[in-house]
């Protein structure tokens, strides 16, 4: 199961669910349905100092279609929606394209190119990835033309991604690209870069660079992520900062059917000083038990190291405890 962790970083060539069930197939075409039911109880203090339990339960359903065009080229389509109580269905993915030995090309709402880099350390069942926020063009977004390819190089694996988000009239077009080189001995390297215009009235460009490294040995997995960003606050950090720098460290140990993970996240505003410069500072621990490939339960705790400073609320600096159960289909 430790290999699942490194697979998060190197299996970017397919976004279909690993548990998806094929519901139709013939000589040239297939259709698969997958998703998850995930119950999540989130316990944290509010601004009054009272501990509250929030229901963050969600359901995801995805449908993946594929049909052969020639012996080496195929067409594909993918949709995934997420529903939470009281909200409309959120279309997470909505795209179609072609694929082959050259890789895959998709257009629609699909992933950008930096998610596979943040996946090096985004391995927890709930917490983590607080220092890995991405600009919109590098994250999952619509009006997006994306390419991904995975290639064997003398037993090692090279995965490359590139995408371009078209201008929809508001001059918010952008692009990102990234690459991961995974050695057969368990060491992997990743790097990526993205830019995006921030609209007609801002006259600014968001820029973001990521670098990551990981190592898998037996049941142990360790990884580190570094990011440097300019003017990315409009898309990621809620106008908190225009120049940010951060990093995340992650470790995991697999014991039979249980995975123990820990992460440390730190993100700073390089234009601020004192306690207000710390945008994220947290340690998170979780344990996830896999009963089988379809069902798991987990407990996750985040130690929030931020102090109340500036416009930070008590709730925004509170620790957080989460209990979850997830059924994949």
Task: Describe this structure as you would to a colleague.
It is a multi-pass membrane protein. The protein has a single domain, classed as Porin (Beta Barrel), CATH 2.40.160.10. It has 329 residues and is mainly β. The chain contains 3 helices and 18 strands. It has helices at residues 2-10, 115-118, 233-237; strands spanning 21-25, 29-45, 51-55, 58-68, 73-84, 90-100, 103-110, 141-153, 156-165, 174-182, 187-197, 205-217, 220-230, 243-255, 258-269, 278-290, 295-304, 320-328. It has a 16-stranded antiparallel β-barrel with strand order 2-4-5-6-7-8-9-10-11-12-13-14-15-16-17-18. A hairpin with a 2-residue loop joins strand 14 (243-255) and strand 15.
Q: What's the quick description here?
A:
It contains three helices and 18 strands. Strands 2-4-5-6-7-8-9-10-11-12-13-14-15-16-17-18 form a 16-stranded antiparallel beta barrel. One of its GO terms (cellular component) is cell outer membrane.
For the structure shown, list the relevant keywords.
329 residues; mainly beta; Porin; 16-stranded antiparallel beta barrel; 3 helices; 5% helix; disordered N terminus
Describe the secondary-structure layout.
Blueprint: H1 2-10, E1 21-25, E2 29-45, E3 51-55, E4 58-68, E5 73-84, E6 90-100, E7 103-110, H2 115-118, E8 141-153, E9 156-165, E10 174-182, E11 187-197, E12 205-217, E13 220-230, H3 233-237, E14 243-255, E15 258-269, E16 278-290, E17 295-304, E18 320-328
Antiparallel strand pairs: 1-2, 2-3, 2-4, 2-18, 4-5, 5-6, 6-7, 7-8, 8-9, 9-10, 10-11, 11-12, 12-13, 13-14, 14-15, 15-16, 16-17, 17-18
